[in-house]
Specification:
The complex is a heterodimer of chains A (232) and B (53). Chain A is mainly α and 232 residues long. Chain A is built from 7 helices and no strands. The longest helix of chain A is centred in the last third of the chain and has 43 residues. Chain A is globular, with a radius of gyration of 20 Å. With 53 residues, chain B is mostly helical. Helices cover 79% and strands 0% of the residues of chain B. The radius of gyration of chain B is 24 Å and the shape is rod-shaped. The chains are: A mainly alpha (232), B mainly alpha (53). Chains A and B meet through α2, α3 and α7 of A and α1 of B.
C-alpha cells in the first residue's frame, strides 16, 4: 500500500485550518441578518456545499469524456470519486436548504423549481451509483458510468438556472431575484467576504477529499486484481 | 416577518443546519477511513495467500 504523499498531508492541514477560519467568520465575523436572524448564517455553507456538489458532477462528466477517449482506469476512478463527493455535498445543500426554509418560508419543503431540480439531480447521481453496483465487468461498468456521468450532467445547469428561468420563490446570489423570491437579502461587505471565503474553503475541501477518494479507488482496484489472481 | 421588530429568533435552525453540515462531512470522512482500513486488511490477507501459493 502506498504511503500518504507529503503534499496531501499538507493539503489536509491547510484545509482543516481554512475550514476553522471559515467557521469562525460565519459565526463571529459576518453580522446577523436584520430580518431572518441567525438562520441566515446557514447560507454561507449551504451555497458552498451546492457549489461543491455541482463541481463534483462537472469533474465526473469531464472524467467520463476523458475515459471514453483514452480508456484509462484513472478517469473511471476519478469520475466515481467526484460523483460520490458531489452527492454528499449536494445532500448537505438540499437538507440545509430545507432547514432554512422552515422559519423563512414556513414550510420544510415545497415543490419549487429549484428544490425540485436539485432533488432530481441528486436522484440522478444516486442512480449512477446503483447502475455501477449492478455491473460486474469493470470495463463495461466504467464505460456505462462515463456515458451516464456525461448525460446526467444535463441536470446540473438545469438546477443552476432553474431559479433564474422559472417562476420560483428561491432567492439567487448571482443575478436578479424573481419577483416572488422570499428570503432574499442584501449582503454587507463582511457577509460577501465570508461568502466568497466559504466558496474558496469548500473548493479546498473538494480537492482534498477527491485526492483521498481517488487513492481509495486505486487501493480498491489493487485488491480486486489480487482477488482475481489468487482466487481465479 | 414583515411586522416583526428586530431579527427573528431562528437560532435553533442555524444549529440544526450546521449539525447537518458537519455531521455529513464527518460521516463521509469516517466512511473513507473505514473503507480504507477494510481494503488494507483485505490486501494483507490476499498478499499472504499469494505468497503461500
Amino acid at each position: 500500500m502506498q504511503s500518504k504523499p507529503r503534499l496531501l498531508s499538507i493539503l489536509d492541514a491547510v484545509t482543516v485550518a481554512l475550514l476553522l477560519i471559515a467557521t469562525g467568520m460565519v459565526f463571529f465575523y459576518a453580522p446577523e441578518e436584520a430580518v431572518m436572524g441567525q438562520v441566515q448564517r446557514v447560507f454561507y455553507f449551504h451555497v458552498a456545499a451546492g457549489w461543491v456538489g455541482m463541481l463534483g458532477f462537472l469533474v465526473a462528466a469531464v472524467a467520463g469524456i476523458a475515459y471514453l477517449r483514452s480508456g484509462e482506469r484513472k478517469w473511471d476512478i476519478t469520475g466515481l470519486a467526484a460523483v460520490e463527493i458531489g452527492m454528499a455535498f449536494a445532500f448537505i445543500n438540499v437538507i440545509t436548504g430545507s432547514i432554512w426554509a422552515r422559519p423563512i418560508w414556513n414550510t420544510w419543503w415545497t415543490w419549487d423549481p429549484r428544490l425540485t431540480t436539485a432533488t432530481i439531480m441528486l436522484l440522478i447521481y444516486a442512480a449512477y451509483l446503483m447502475l455501477r453496483s449492478g455491473i460486474e465487468d469493470p470495463d463495461r461498468r466504467a464505460r456505462f458510468g462515463a456515458v451516464y456521468a456525461i448525460v446526467g450532467f444535463i441536470s446540473v445547469p438545469l438546477t443552476f438556472f432553474s431559479a433564474r428561468l422559472f417562476r420560483t420563490i428561491h432567492p439567487v446570489v448571482i443575478g436578479s431575484n424573481q419577483p416572488g423570491a422570499e428570503g432574499a437579502f442584501d449582503m454587507t461587505p463582511k457577509m460577501l467576504q465570508t461568502f466568497l471565503f466559504s466558496l474558496l474553503v469548500f473548493s479546498f475541501i473538494f480537492v482534498d477529499l477527491l485526492w483521498h477518494r481517488v487513492r481509495l479507488g486505486w487501493l480498491q482496484d489493487k485488491v480486486e486484481q489480487l482477488k482475481l489472481k489468487t482466487m481465479g | 416577518m414583515l411586522l416583526q421588530q428586530g431579527p427573528a429568533e431562528t437560532t435553533v435552525y442555524m444549529v440544526a443546519g450546521y449539525a447537518v453540515i458537519f455531521g455529513v462531512m464527518l460521516a463521509y470522512l469516517a466512511s473513507l477511513w473505514v473503507r480504507r482500513n477494510n481494503l488494507a486488511q483485505d490486501l494483507q490477507v490476499l498478499q499472504e495467500m499469494e505468497q503461500k501459493q
